[in-house]
Design a protein that fits this description.
The complex is a heterodimer of chains A (183) and B (82). With 183 residues, chain A is an all-alpha fold. Chain A folds into two domains: 1-74, Rna Polymerase Sigma Factor, Chain: A (Orthogonal Bundle), CATH 1.10.1740.10; 112-183, Arc Repressor Mutant, subunit A (Orthogonal Bundle). Chain A is built from nine helices and no strands. Chain A has helices spanning 5-26, 29-45, 56-74, 76-92, 100-111, 114-124, 130-137, 141-166, 171-180. In chain A, helix 6 packs across helix 8 (141-166) and helix 7 (130-137) packs across helix 8 (141-166). In chain B, 43% of the residues lie in helices and 0% in strands. Classes of the chains: A mainly alpha (183), B mainly alpha (82).
Chain lengths: 183, 82
């Protein structure tokens, strides 16, 4: 059975955001593209289980996340190394974005625990509802909300510290400043 | 600590109440929800903005040619697993 062109186009139109999500999970464009490719192979092989009219992006994101997670469990150490290198690469190549502030944000994002980063991206960048993000991650809606909140708080902390750095205070001053920054 | 629930690779459809946008553009509409976090509004806005900017940088690259070819080739096959 050939694939319905409408379904094919739905798959293709999800690819750009699927890649953005994959890059946020793996930190490497090449690995992310492999992951996207693997996801599409699997999705097209099981396209019969996709119900036309339902949420194609959520379906593909779920497959990609599951593939990543199963690979992650197998290669946990490698992935952690990769994440560390990713953060380092970003620090040493600010010209990648040509925007220092933007780059600081990337580094801060890379420091988040992966479950928090994933939840924040699904809700804050991919535009999924909390319910859709929960379905994609296979967890409760409340869990997604709390991960998103923790991610935002942590990012705010990381970025606030960075901006204090810009004024070049010594460590003690910085501790006072960041300490008073919270209620 | 809750036990990890096994996740099916082929999820059933999210419930009908959830937004099910057909087009990706519709999905990427910024969604400003009621603030549930006690962070400064400015800080939150900045985080949201930068997050979307970072993400959209990749989205704007579109579909890589090799992936476009792959999907089109597989969708023409009688058996996509072949």
């Amino acid at each position: 059975m050939k694939l319905d062109p409408a379904i094919r186009d739905q798959v293709l139109s999800t690819v750009p955001s699927l890649r953005a999500f994959a890059i946020s999970l793996c930190g490497h464009v090449d690995r992310a593209d492999d992951l996207v490719q693997e996801t599409l192979l699997r999705a097209l092989a099981h396209i019969d289980s996709f119900e036309p009219g339902t949420n194609m992006p959520a379906w593909l994101f779920t497959i990609l996340r599951n593939l990543f997670r199963s690979e992650y469990r197998k290669r946990r150490r490698e992935v952690e190394d990769a994440e560390g290198r990713y953060a380092e690469t970003l620090k040493s190549h600010p010209e990648q974005t040509g925007h220092v502030e933007f780059n600081e944000f990337r580094v801060a994002l890379a420091k988040l625990p992966s479950d928090q980063r994933e939840a924040l991206i699904l809700v804050g960048a991919s535009g999924f509802s909390y319910e859709e993000a929960a379905a994609i991650c296979g967890c409760a809606v409340g869990t997604i909300k709390s991960r998103v909140n923790r991610a935002r708080t942590r990012l705010a902390d990381l970025l606030a510290i960075d901006s204090v750095d810009d004024f070049g205070p010594d460590r003690a001053t910085r501790a006072v400043l960041t300490g008073t920054g919270r209620s | 600590m809750k036990p990890g629930k096994p996740v099916n690779a082929e999820p059933s459809a999210p419930d009908a109440d959830a937004e099910t946008p057909q087009a990706w553009d519709a999905m990427r509409r910024p969604t400003h929800r009621k603030s549930e976090v006690r962070l400064g509004r400015e800080v939150q806005a900045r985080i949201g903005q930068q997050l979307r900017a970072l993400y959209d940088e990749v989205v704007k690259e579109g579909v890589p040619q090799h992936i476009d070819d792959l999907v089109r080739r597989l969708s023409e096959q009688e058996d996509p697993t072949a």
